[in-house]
Design a protein that fits this description.
Oligomer: heterodimer
Shape of chain B: elongated
Largest sheet of chain B: none
Pathway (chain A): Protein modification; protein glycosylation
Number of helices of chain B: 4
Number of domains of chain B: 1
Largest sheet of chain A: none
Structural class of chain B: mainly alpha
GO biological process, one term (chain A): dolichol phosphate mannose biosynthetic process
Strand content of chain B: under 5%
Distance between the termini of chain B: 45 Å
InterPro entries (chain A): DPM2 (IPR009914)
Order of helices and strands of chain A: HH
Family (chain A): Belongs to the DPM2 family.
Number of strands of chain A: 0
Strand content of chain A: under 5%
GO molecular function, one term (chain A): enzyme activator activity
Radius of gyration of chain A: 21 Å
Number of helices of chain A: 2
Structural class of chain A: mainly alpha
C-alpha cells in the first residue's frame, strides 16, 4: 500500500490531467461545431489562446528544466573544486 | 527498419496529411468548422500526450506499494 500522501498526490495528478484533457478537447474539437450563440462559448477563451498558452507553457517548462540542470551542474562543480 | 525510422515515417505521414488539409487552396478546403478544429491539431496532440503522461505518472505514484523491508534496510 502506497503512503497516504503518495496516493493523494498521485490521484490529484490524475484528476488534474483529466480535467485539463476534457477542457482542452472541448475547446479545440467540440466548440467549432457549436453555434456561435450557444451558451457554452462563454466558458472558453478566444481560440488563439488555445495555441498560445500551451506553447508558452512548454517554453517555460524548458526554461525551468534548463535552469535546474545548470544549477545542479554548478553545485557539483563547486564541490569537486573544494575537495581538491 | 529501426523503431526510430518507423516512428519518423509515421510522423511524416500524419504530418503531410495534416499539411495537405491545412494548406489546401481555397477551392479544396474542408468545410469551415472542420478546418477550425483541424488547424491546432498538432498542438492538441502534444497537449493530449502530456496529459496522458502526467496521468500515468500520477497513477503509478498512487498505486506503487511501499516496501517497508527495503526502507528498513536503507
Amino acid at each position: 500500500q502506497a503512503t497516504a500522501t503518495d496516493q493523494l498526490v498521485g490521484f490529484g495528478l490524475v484528476a488534474f490531467s483529466l480535467v485539463l484533457f476534457v477542457y482542452y478537447t472541448v475547446w479545440i474539437i467540440v466548440l467549432p461545431f457549436m453555434d456561435s450563440d450557444h451558451g457554452i462559448h462563454q466558458f472558453f477563451l478566444p481560440r488563439e489562446y488555445a495555441v498560445i498558452i500551451p506553447v508558452a507553457a512548454g517554453l517555460l517548462l524548458l526554461l525551468f528544466i534548463g535552469v535546474f540542470i545548470m544549477s545542479v551542474m554548478w553545485k557539483s562543480r563547486k564541490h569537486t573544486k573544494k575537495s581538491d | 527498419m529501426t523503431k526510430l525510422a518507423q516512428w519518423l515515417c509515421g510522423l511524416a505521414l500524419l504530418g503531410s496529411a495534416w499539411a495537405a488539409l491545412a494548406l489546401a487552396p481555397p477551392g479544396l478546403q474542408p468545410p469551415a468548422p472542420l478546418r477550425q478544429a483541424l488547424l491546432p491539431l498538432p498542438v492538441y496532440l502534444l497537449v493530449a500526450f502530456g496529459c496522458y503522461s502526467l496521468a500515468t505518472v500520477g497513477y503509478r505514484l498512487a498505486t506503487f506499494n511501499d516496501c517497508e523491508e527495503a526502507a528498513a534496510e536503507l
